Automatic annotation (TrEMBL):
Keywords: Membrane, Signal, Transmembrane, Transmembrane helix. The chain crosses the membrane at residues 23-43, 77-102, 130-154, 175-199. This is Uncharacterized protein. The keyword Membrane applies. It is found in: Endomembrane system.
Length: 264
């Protein structure tokens, strides 16, 4: 059975961003973001409404200050809570795997030297992109979760006695849950962009590490002192000097190549 380069190449660890585990977690996080978006749309469609009560106080005047809710708010509360948990799980999964991959990345970026100015500029660009994705991801995530928490608190305020007329009624404003859903799905896509940017930076650092090793190997090869010759001339009394070979003569590369050609 033939051995290929793929067999000799080291297998990717489960914590690597480009591993199968990383791809599965990335897809899983995106699916959770889509689930969050759908649940937010359902919560928006089923959110509680205010119904104004028209009553006659007995003096011939109509009193419209009384209101009641259209429902108990359990349905939008459940869907909003599901969206809240789905988005939180997606963020935890993506960022936990990203932190593990960066902390265990090989090579360590702090130990590398930049051999190519173009690679250095590319790495700086990737750094700014990663910073942009990181900041915008957390901003969208925070706003989405705050909106969902507001919706949850409002919908949970009339679980009991929702049909009783009252003087004041509080409901979630139109578009609150849908806005949270849009921000939620934006969050997971921005987090995916952050993971992809980190993966590109990891590939670039690996290329720099390979270049560093090649330069170090070449510098070590050329820094070795020249090999002393194995031939020496000794003089015998009354005779012409005779060329002798040292007992510990080591054949050079040319001798090995000639012997290899003869074998072939």
């Amino acid at each position: 059975m033939a051995v290929t380069h793929a067999d000799l190449a080291p297998s990717r660890k489960g914590t690597d961003l480009g591993s199968k585990t990383g791809v599965v977690l990335l897809i899983f996080s995106i699916l959770l973001g889509l689930i969050c978006f759908v649940l937010c749309l359902i919560a928006e469609a089923t959110r509680s409404q205010i119904i104004r009560e028209v009553s006659d106080g007995g003096g011939g005047e109509t009193d419209k200050n009384q209101c009641r809710y259209s429902g108990n708010g359990k349905t939008p509360l459940i869907y909003a809570a599901g969206a809240f948990l789905a988005l939180a799980i997606a963020m935890v999964v993506q960022h936990t795997h990203l932190l593990l991959a960066v902390s265990k990345s090989d090579p360590d970026p702090s130990l590398l030297m930049t051999w190519d100015p173009l690679s250095d500029n590319h790495l700086n660009t990737l750094t700014w992109q990663a910073a942009f994705f990181f900041v915008t991801t957390w901003i969208c995530f925070s706003v989405a979760e705050v909106l969902l928490l507001i919706g949850l608190s409002v919908e949970s305020g009339h679980l009991k006695g929702w049909s009783i007329p009252r003087s004041t009624c509080f409901i979630a404003r139109e578009g609150l849950f849908s806005s949270a859903g849009v921000l939620g799905i934006t969050t997971v896509f921005l987090a995916s962009g952050l993971s992809i940017t980190a993966l590109r930076a990891q590939w670039l650092l690996q290329d720099q590490e390979n270049a560093r090793r090649e330069v170090m190997e070449a510098s070590i090869l050329y820094s070795l002192p020249p090999r002393p010759s194995g031939d020496r001339i000794t003089a015998v009394g009354g005779e012409t000097p005779i060329l002798r070979h040292d007992l510990y003569y080591e054949p050079g590369l040319i001798e090995y190549l000639r012997a290899f050609d003869k074998i072939i």
